[in-house]
Amino acid sequence: MISIELGDEDLAKYPFLEEAGEYVKARDLSLVDISQPDFKRVIGRARNRVFQAIRSREVSGDIGTPEIEILSFPIALMLVKATNLEHLVSRYSHAEAIRVENLLEDEREDLIVEIFRNVLKINVILVTSKIGFSKLNYKIPIMDYLRRSTRFHELQWKLINRIVDEGYVYLKSHELIRLIRQEIENKIRDRLKEMVVPQLPQSFIKTIQEISAFSPPPPKLNDRVKITPDKYPPCVITALDMLKKGENLPHYGRFLLTTYLVNIGSSVEEIISLYSRSPDFNERITKYQVEHISGLRGGRVKYTCPSCRTLVTHSFCFKTKKCNEIRNPLQFDKKANLRSKRKGNKKWTKKQQ
Amino acid sequence: MDKKTAIVLKKKFKEYYYDHVEQIEVPPHIDEREFGYMTFDRIMMRHLSFQNSGDMQAQILKASPASVYYSTSFYEGPSRQMHEKGWKGGDLVFDIDADTLSSPCRQIHDKWICRICGMQKVGIKPNKCPGCKGTRIHEVNIACDTCLDAAKNEALKLQDILINDFGIQKTKIDIFFSGSMGYHLSIANSDFAEANQAVRSDIVDYVSGQAFISESLGVSRKSTYENMIDRFPSEKEKGWRGRIARYFKAQKNGEGSKDAPVILIELYRNVGYRKFRLAIEDAAKKSGATVDPSVTTDIHRILRLPGTLHGKTGLLKKRCKDLESFSPMEDAVAFGHDPMKVLVDNSPKFSLLGEQFGPFKSESIELPTMAAIYLLGQDMATVEE
Questions:
Q1: Model confidence over B259-286: pLDDT tens digits?
Q2: pLDDT digits (tens, 9 = 90+) for B88-131
Q3: Do B202 and A301 count as a contact with CB atoms less than 8 A apart?
Q4: Contact (CB<8Å) A164/B293
Q5: Which residue in B has a C-alpha nearest to residue A311's C-alpha?
Q6: Residue ranges per domain, chain B?
Q7: CB B260 within 8 A of CB B233
Q8: In this structure, which topology does domain B336-385 adopt according to CATH?
Q9: Interface test with A, best of B85, B127, B128, B166 (most A CBs within 10 A)
């Protein structure tokens, strides 16, 4: 439990806190109660939370009446869950997490520290002395940082680009908050997944149908199109060139090439034939290794392609401008497709509004 | 290695283990570790596990292999196949190998042999054989004092980063001479035990000075000179900013008492953003410790067991109580002076326990056991008929 005094406004901002749950419980409300006209504004805000998530991928942080804000959160969760739409669960959790992130940005330091310690179990410590060239208000243990930062691909999040001292990473307030967005999202998603929706009164059913109708369609999985060699990323092209020239391709280059080709759908035979030019080629061993990576042997797990960051670590990244901001060589060709798709989605959202 | 040499080496290793089995170190969580070994016939055995130190010692004594390994990770079922082991966590380990540091002396003592055409020369192994253009090239490298000192220097840099930046107590960092060309640093029972590959990879980049960006010094493509000097680090600053400042300060040591921010702003003014960024990247790489990234990031790795012999040198993987004063070619010598007759094919000069040996070329010679095994293990000699 949080050790500092929390007001209704605090609970309204962070309705996922245990204290907010207790506030709701103490009211001892039934479904019949909340179907009454007195609760019209609460239901309205719950509905509005979900529609904001659908339309702008972000729930607004205006507090208005704290009571409405606190009570509308569990009802909004129930509405989302009742639609049975898996992708709406994701979108809603994300939109609520963005709301929390925005609110935390303007939060008082002692409450930030308490939320991090109690909800996320991160030992955040306030920093008073000046360190580095910009104001760094907090420090957290290195492992707590790395567990989260390795999800981000921008170089600024790499540990080496942080101020690190005696086991702690120093952070600005908005960096600390950005670091945990995903966790807030996961917490809300987990709560949604565990939720069991009771039999709902007719008035709710109408709202749920409305939400389902406005909810965007689930993202379509791309039909797998065979990627031609001219669309391979530069690291894969380098690896292939080395093989062609009969140079000794380092272990990591081989792992990259094989996992990449396996994941874009090349056959085991096609891959083996590439290595046949290698001077130390042993068909039996190569076949075993390629089959292992393809998930046809051993643990039956198909290996994925190493990330761009891992390739940098192993000195096998040959980044060009075309790589843009991809995180994994497998995204190299898909990037253009994805962009045009996103544009399409935006248009769709606008039309609905 | 011919059969006879293999038999003799195995016998010598067995004799050694018989007298020194207690000196083999027992890793923490022994019953959760995977063990493995490689015989002198180059057969690799993996997925072994032991309930206690006695079982482990008995197996090492029985097999007397060329190399004994233990997993840096611990598992629910260490003897199961890799995908069924159930990873529970792992020590944070670093491998520093003189082989990857291009010390100039390697031109003198390294040797390569082309497996295709048989051509052999002294010097660093080329990518392609100049004779037949083949790439199956075998490398013979002996670590001299210069190479080993270079490796020790990297280990000291790493130790400094782990203590000051990671806040790991000096006594919690186990440092070992690897038994051949470098050092292993290992941290057990820490917060990092649960670190996944991505986390370990970021730690490798941190210690080795990879991917440091000029923005961390307060300079980006769009920067102006305004307040730039205030954003540059002083030598006293913590973490990598301070390390970069100290690097440039040391570079300009001969030029009076200019502070690091002044040196940095002059550099920026002289070369411009692009070259400044490259100079910073270079400074970071040089200030970092050169480690083998795959050893740290691979959580299923097996590493030589401390207190066991290295099959190629007959030297021990030995704990360094004090890294600065540790002398590998003296402190890690396991075998004694009993004479052994060997036929040396080709060997550069080397020294063990302060005694100089070689260079030898196609000669039959009687050597102390320690020197004979050192050459036999590296295929530079064979046992005389």
A1: 899 999 999 999 999 999 999 999 999 9
A2: 999 999 999 987 777 777 777 777 888 788 888 888 888 888 88
A3: no
A4: no
A5: B201
A6: 3-98+149-204+292-334, 106-140, 214-287, 336-385
A7: yes
A8: Ribosomal Protein L9; domain 1 (3.40.5)
A9: B166
* Kind plus residue range of the DSSP H or E element containing B350: strand B350-352
Q: Which residue from A minimizes the CA distance to B232?
A: A133
Q: Which of A11-20, B48-57, B155-164 has the lowest mean pLDDT?
A: A11-20
User: Which one, of B161, B245, B164, B238, lies nearest residue A127 by Cα?
Assistant: B238
Token look-up 């004092």 returns B145
Note which residues in 270-299 of chain A have CB less than 8 A from chain B.
Answer: 278-280, 298-299
A10-14, A58-62, A341-345, B245-249: range with lowest mean pLDDT: A341-345
Q: What is the dihedral of CA A207, A208, A211, A216, to 10 degrees?
A: -170
* A312 close to B (CB below 8 A): yes
Q: State the smallest CA–CA distance between residue A326 and chain B in angstroms.
A: 16
Residue whose tokens read 């035990």: B193
Nearest to B141 by CA among B176, B183, B102: B102
- DSSP assignment of B169-204 equals -GGGEEEEE-SSSEEEEEE-SSGGGG--HHHHHHHH
Does residue B338 have an active-site annotation?
Answer: no
In B, which residues are within 8 Å of A167 by CB distance?
A: 166-168
Taking alpha carbons only, the member of B85, B92, B25 closest to residue B295 is B92
Q: Which residues pair with A163 in a beta bridge?
A: A170
Q: Among residues B219, B350, B343, which one has the least CA distance to residue B275? A: B219
Kind of pairing, strands B339-347 and B381-383? Answer: antiparallel
In the set B95, B160, B259, B298, the catalytic residue is: B95
In the prediction, which pLDDT does B210 show?
Answer: 92
Angstroms from B356 CA to nearest CA on chain A: 36
Q: Is A353 helix (H, G, I), strand (E, B) or coil?
A: coil
The answer for B 29-88 residues in CB contact with A (under 8 A) is: 81-84
pLDDT tens string A12-70: 999 888 888 898 889 888 888 888 888 899 999 999 999 999 999 999 988 889 999 99
B292 labelled catalytic: yes
Type of residue numbered B371: A
| B221 interface with A at CB cutoff 8 Å | no
Q: What phi and psi, each to the nearest 5 degrees, are found at residue A286?
A: -60, -45
Catalytic pick among B91, B99, B110, B292? B292
Peptide bond into B359 cis (omega under 30): yes
d(CA A149, CA A172): 14
User: Is residue A58 within 8 Å of residue A52, measured between CB atoms?
Assistant: yes
B212 interaction partners in chain A (CB closer than 8 Å): 160-161
- Candidates 1.10.1750.10, 3.10.20.440, 3.90.920.10, 3.90.550.10; CATH matching B3-98+149-204+292-334: 3.90.920.10
What separation in angstroms does the CA of A300 have from each of A37, A170, A262, A267, B82? 58, 42, 14, 16, 11
Cβ distance A309 to B197 less than 8 Å, yes or no, reads: no
Check if B95 is active-site: yes
Q: Which of A159, A301, A312 sits opposite B203 (nearest CB)?
A: A159
Q: Which of B216, B231, B237 sits opposite A161 (nearest CB)?
A: B216
pTM: 0.83
Q: Which residues of A touch B204 (CB under 8 A)?
A: 313
